[in-house]
Amino acid sequence: MLKALFISSQEDLHLLSTLVLNQSREQFYIFPARSVSESIDLIEEQGSFDLIFLGHRVKKDKELKELSSEIIRLINETEVKLVGTNRSLKGKEWANYFSEMTPLISVLNQTIKSIGQENRPSDFIKIPTLSLLEFEKIPADCFDKNSEKVCSIGDEVEVSTVYELKETGNEILFLQTNQVREYSEQLAESIDKLDSEEIKNPKKVFEAATDYAVQLLKESSIQVNEEHLKVTTEARDEMENFINLSKDSKGLLKELIEKEQKFYYKHVTMTSLLGCFILDEMMLTDPSMKQKVCLAAQFQNIFLHNEKELLIDSNDQLGHFKGDDKKRISHHPLMAAELLQKNPNFDSDVLKIIKEQHGDKRGIGFPEKMQSSLKISLVFQVASLFAQTFLIEKEKGLSPQPLDIFNRIYQRLLVKDHSILKALKSVIAGL
Questions:
Q1: Average pLDDT over residues 271-289
Q2: How far is CA 16 from CA 7, 21, 135, 182, in A?
Q3: Distance of CA 378 to the CA centre of its chain
Q4: How far apart are CA 301 and CA 33, in angstroms?
Q5: What is the pLDDT of residue 371?
Q6: For the chain, which terminal residue's Cβ has fewer other Cβ atoms within 10 angstroms, N or C?
Q7: Four-way CATH pick for 2-119+178-189: 3.40.50.2300, 1.10.10.10, 3.30.390.30, 3.40.50.970
Q8: Which region holds residue 372: left if phi is over 0, alpha if psi is between -120 and 50, else beta?
């Protein structure tokens, strides 16, 4: 049995890790630590671990460098694997760093691979019996070594029952895989929601989303250069300046921009970076072109309220909504353009890009055939739709097929602009 130390103050992350990591060949016993001092105490008590996860939220009741010293000592003395979402791990050769925006189940699945433990397809997963003590309720139907059902999903966890099972030779319990995965998805969603609510500074979320987009591209051998990062950051700053100068609508704009949905920021940054890459491939090197694309990305979804709305890309999906919500979602590009054009200094090209983002010149709906009034607008449409589709599949834990996404976009273009399509195909060749 492998031992894993999970250092994070994110509630329920240790529960999620128990359910996901134990879908591998080996069983993991998870030791949760919410603070620096708890982590140090557990390292001293246990002596060694097979895996240490260092999260981006940790209660700092002691200096983080004290914990770092202990972890580095373990790395030098043992074969412990260090992974996590803490930015102190970024760029370290001896650690496997993930952006904090990476979906948690994806992080845990990649962690399994990083320590050489592939997922084991089965109708049941095996977990250490004592792991149940961390749960308030049973996460899935449990069976003992004789295939007899010993507890049911939703039952209260009874400490005496758990120890009795262990004492009768049941070191391991078998849980129904389908129920475990469903419960894991609920846990991941709950953890992510709480994490989003703790983020008070949209600028920091944007930085984290940019870090995530760069990581995804880097995994596909696409290196983001400093110029692209500079343009996306400047667009974010320009957006803030515009809001502060918009006296009549400053309050509304500020409210619209400060989203809790991480996908909102991921879409902004991925659209920006892909747009820059496409323009480079087209040899359109005028910095103002990239600035227009990046600024439009900042404002593209300001009238969408939640992640469910952010995932819509067709009129068929729009049919699931009714009344005012349906109209707002359908008209959100037009509404954004109308709000922004109240300021006479706002770039007219960017207004058109925002209005036409889904391929309708009126800024209404999700047409089957996309069209635009400007070439730069079409570049944006292609970058935005590719980014959205790619990210949705990543969020679902799938392996996006770039060429399939390219073909879907190709079918939706009314005018096949080969310079843009050739550029996009060249960019995604490494994905």
A1: 93
A2: 13, 8, 10, 11
A3: 26
A4: 38
A5: 92
A6: N
A7: 3.40.50.2300
A8: beta
Which whole number is the average pLDDT over 235-249? 83
Q: CATH number of the domain at 199-428, please?
A: 1.10.3210.10
**Strand, helix or coil at 202?**
helix
Pair of tokens at residue 394 = 């990543």
Q: 3-class DSSP state for residue 298?
A: helix
Closest residue by Cα to residue 257 from 273, 271, 236, 275: 236
In a 13 Å sphere around the CA of 85, the CA atoms on its Cβ side amount to 26
CA distances from 201 to 39, 56, 148 (A): 28, 15, 51
Q: What single-letter amino acid sits at 429?
A: A
Domain extent listing, the chain: 2-119+178-189, 199-428
Residue-wise pLDDT for 218-238, tens only, equals 887 788 889 999 999 999 999
Amino acid identity of residue 52, one-letter, is I
Bridge partners of 2? 28
Residue 198 has pLDDT above 70, yes or no: no
Residue 205 carries which side chain, given as an amino acid letter?
A: V
66, pLDDT greater than 70: yes
pLDDT in tens, 102-150: 999 999 998 998 877 776 778 899 999 999 999 999 999 999 999 999 9
CA 387 to each of CA 77, 139, 382: distance values in angstroms, whole numbers, following the listed order: 43, 35, 8
CA atoms of 294 and 53, how far apart (whole Å)? 34
* Residues 349-355, mean pLDDT to the nearest whole number: 97
Cα angle, residue 386 at apex, residues 383 and 390 outer, rounded to 5°? 135
CB-count exposure of residue 392 (10 Å: 0-12, 13-18, 19+): middle
Helix (H, G, I), strand (E, B) or coil at 388: helix
Tell me: pLDDT of 260 over 90: no
pLDDT of residue 262: 87
Residue with more model confidence, 430 or 61: 61
User: DSSP states of 307-363 as a string?
Assistant: HHHHT--SHHHHTT--HHHHHHHHHHHHHHHHHHTTSTTS-HHHHHHHHTTTS-TTS
Residues 153/140, Cβ–Cβ less than 8 Å? yes
